[in-house]
TrEMBL record:
Residues 37-71 are annotated as: Disordered. It comes from Oryza meyeriana var. granulata. This is Lysine--tRNA ligase. InterPro entries: Aa-tRNA-synt_II, aa-tRNA-synth_II, aa-tRNA-synth_II/BPL/LPL, Lys-tRNA-ligase_II, Lys-tRNA-ligase_II_N, Lys-tRNA-synth_II_C, NA-bd_OB-fold, NA-bd_OB_tRNA. It holds the Pfam family tRNA_anti-codon. The lineage of its organism: Eukaryota, Viridiplantae, Streptophyta, Embryophyta, Tracheophyta.
């Protein structure tokens, strides 16, 4: 409160308060400060140029230190009281604006230095992000959704009381509307020569320091709204994200797909192997799961007769958090009747390249210092050949000898018997599982340029059709870019008997892995998602739908968040999700 007393003693608001004591406050009205019409000659008078601001001088309105936060809030609340006491409402209903800041910057860039368009009246609105007072001049920088522009407020065009009000009530962070003519200063700064303004929203909390910005990464994610104010480029990421989603929809529609919606709350968590979130429906008196995939319901649509369907939706998995993983994320899943996984490779290339062209205008993008070429066609290699190329081990040579495959993997990866990696490897129930472990550990991160990894083992692909030429494999691919999985696709399994057997085998494998992992109770270095404590159950309704007959089809899921990461050069998935899930703040 010491800061409040200092402010009250040094501001002219005490005078205003004293004058109110002798007369009743007028009815509430918007704060609209009018300036006298200025002649062209007066407008072109060269103003004193704003000197550079001393970085050591910080006003209370721009300081973001913790110690000052509450005192600044108290000061600004006092200003709200003062405004209302004078009959001004600092939280407006609307503002009629004629231009955005970008429209003004583009439309009047031709003005000469010192020139003013006195016959033009414009109206803008935005947040004050900078404020500088120099004697008879006040400069304010206003930012809206499109950019920034300067407000030029001159004492000679205002009464003394109006000018003092301008200096006393306006803080950085306030949202204001302003009317006036257009002027380019002698320094070449396009400005609105203010004739009147309103405080549309009075900010109570200070913005981060203008020279350092909001640098606390956790706070940036936790208070994304402040992050977007302090770092305007953050908003560009979400504009790009919106453009990517829009372009995906346009692409799907151009190929004749229709968008459908499937349940988020499901009776069985199916379509992937992942730990689900569980909730309880009171009226139905039953547990429900937040979906871990949209796959099984979309396939039901194929059974029902829709031949090309897709869904863009939120997926929820109760697993770990990292720069690549968020418990809720966005995917597109698509299914096309009478096609196979070759069709989905072509569609994946089409979607990604169209999104790149829409956002960058070219097919070469830079990601974290590496140039990525999205020019087609993309590399296509089998999982077996990539592992052999990287390690020299041909996993086909092991046949069904799981122990020999495990021993080769331990030697290759340098895994010690007592390590958590060995526990995971020991839980592998087939050569296919061991192959996948080696692939994920050794190969995956090296797939920087777009690569389709083909023909996964049947043991890890319960929803994919058996390969038509190679026993033990499936017609499945995953798309990798920058060492990250972007997409996953199959020639879809349509045989209901085979599908039931795959699901039952998946449940057995899951239970066996859970038993193996539970033998070691140590939690050191063990992620929560590795406990396999959740149950996997059969989706009987989906199996029933297959028995009515699903046409030959292919399907694919693409991770929209990871695609946006690539196209915005974002290192973490949290950078492309507006409000990511975070740990509880201590």
């Amino acid at each position: 409160m010491e800061a409040l007393r200092v402010w009250m003693a040094s501001s002219n608001l005490l005078g205003f308060a004293a004058s109110r004591a002798t007369k009743a406050a007028p009815a509430a009205r918007p704060l609209r400060l009018h300036v006298r019409s200025c002649s062209r000659a007066a407008a072109t008078t060269k103003p004193p140029s704003p000197p550079p601001q001393d970085r050591r001088r910080r006003s209370a309105s721009s300081s973001s230190s913790t110690s000052d936060r509450e005192s600044i809030r108290a000061i600004r609340l006092k200003k709200v009281e003062e405004l209302r006491g004078k009959g001004y409402e600092p939280y407006a209903y609307k503002w009629d604006r004629t231009h955005t800041t970008k429209e003004l910057q583009d439309g009047y860039t031709h003005l000469e230095n010192g020139e003013v368009c006195a016959d033009v009246v414009v109206s803008i609105a935005g947040r004050i992000v900078a404020r500088r007072a120099f004697g008879k001049l006040v400069f304010m920088t206003v930012r809206d959704d499109t950019g920034t522009i300067q407000l030029y407020c001159e004492k000679d065009s205002l009464t003394e009381e109006q000018f003092e009000q301008l200096k006393a009530f306006i803080d950085i962070g306030d949202i204001i509307g302003a009317n006036g003519s257009i002027k380019k200063t002698e320094k070449g700064e396009l400005s609105v020569y203010v004739k009147n303004f309103e405080i549309l929203t009075k900010s109570l909390l200070p913005l981060p320091d203008k020279y350092h910005g909001l640098t606390d990464v956790d706070k940036r994610y936790r208070q994304r709204y402040v992050d977007m104010i302090a770092n305007p480029e953050v908003a560009d990421v979400f504009r790009t994200r919106a453009k990517v989603v829009s372009e995906i929809r346009k692409t799907m529609e151009s190929f004749g797909f229709i968008e459908v919606e499937t349940p988020v709350l499901q009776g069985t968590a199916g379509g992937a192997e992942a730990r689900p979130f569980i909730t309880h429906h009171n009226s139905l008196q039953r547990d429900l799961y937040l979906r871990i995939a949209t796959e099984l319901h979309l396939k039901r649509m194929l059974v029902g007769g829709l031949e090309k369907v897709y869904e863009i939706g939120r997926i929820f998995r109760n697993e770990g958090i990292s720069t690549r993983h968020n418990p809720e994320f966005t995917t597109i899943e698509m299914y096309e009747a009478y096609s196979d996984y070759e069709s989905m490779m072509n569609l994946a290339e089409e979607i990604v390249t169209r999104c790149a062209m829409a956002t960058h205008g070219k097919l070469r993008v830079h990601y974290q210092g590496t140039e990525i070429s999205l020019e087609r066609p993309w590399r296509r290699e089998t999982m077996h050949s990539l592992v052999k190329e990287a390690t020299g081990i041909d996993f086909n040579s092991f046949g069904e000898d799981v122990e020999s495959a495990k021993n080769a993997a331990r030697a290759l990866l340098g895994i010690k018997t007592e390590s958590s990696e060995n526990i995971s490897l020991q839980a592998c129930s087939s050569v296919g599982h061991v192959l996948n472990e080696v692939f994920e550990t050794v190969v995956e991160s090296s797939l920087v340029q777009p690569t389709f990894v083909l023909d996964y083992p049947v043991e890890i692909s319960p929803l994919a059709k058996p390969h038509r030429r190679y026993a033990g494999l499936t017609e499945r691919f995953e798309l990798f870019i920058c060492g990250r999985e972007i997409g996953n696709a199959f020639s879809e399994l349509t045989d209901p008997i085979d599908q039931r057997g795959r699901f039952e085998n998946q449940i057995k494998q899951h239970n066996a892995k859970r038993a193996t992992m539970n033998k070691v109770k140590t939690t050191e270095g063990k992620d929560e998602e590795d406990d396999f404590s959740y149950e996997v159950t059969l989706d009987e309704d989906f199996l029933t739908s297959l028995e009515y007959g699903m046409p030959p089809a292919s399907g694919m899921g693409l991770g929209i968040d990871r695609l946006v990461m690539l196209l915005t050069n974002s290192a973490s998935i949290r950078d492309v999700i507006a409000f990511p899930v975070l740990k509880i703040q201590q």
